[in-house]
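Narrative summary of target 7.
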Amino acid sequence: MKLAFSTLGVPGLPLPEVLGLATTHGYHGVELRAHPEEPVHPGIDAARRAGVVAEFKAAGVEILGLAGYARVAAPGDDEPVLAEIRALLDLAHDLGAPYIRVFPGASPEQTPAEADATAARRLGTAAEDAADIGVRILLETHDSHRTGADAIRVLGLVGHRHVGSLWDVMHTWLGGEQPLETYAALSPYLGYVQVKDISSPDDTTPLPLGAGVLPLSECVEVLSRHGWDGWLCWEYEKRWYEGAAPLPELLGAGREHLGRLLNESA
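Modeled conformation, tokenized:
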């Protein structure tokens, strides 16, 4: 498996510094948070996009994917959501990124069936654009659809190879799902896996990998046992927790921890 980290952990950090952290600590790729607060987002022009590609190539680091914020199950008109997804797809294509991330984002006022149908309709439409340019849309296990069982209801309705899943291990755990259950649900659709650690269900402040309660070793063991050879991406949510320790000083130990888990599961 290849290892990456998300720029959510280093909010607003200039790209050369992000790439320096990746190469210094032995990460193969970076997940880019595609938000206007960040150096890379859908609003950058063609020249900047070409520059980003050149910077990553020179550093020998891959762009794992773009973490967007489109909420595909949310109530309202389809077109604004589809436009947001199209902008992310275009950026991913220009950067050579294989994936974009979207959220479910259903409202409590919707029934599960209504939310599933809304998400599936939008993803099915967006899948055609994704297929045309060779990028996959990944529905993250998050918010209204936090488990693999939740996500599979939508993905099964879509049934398109350019729409898959992003397994966030915190949300599936908070949803009461065991790693083997999540893998069984998501494996036909799995794009990559986001790893992290927290102290408890009531305190999701990010911790160094291995310092909390999330079943990271079980997740890696399940993936390895089934021959899955994709990406593990450390999503350290520093952007939302100002009191959390700075990610740069944790990246080396985090890389070592993931390496140990991979060796133990080999």
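The chain has a mean pLDDT of 97.
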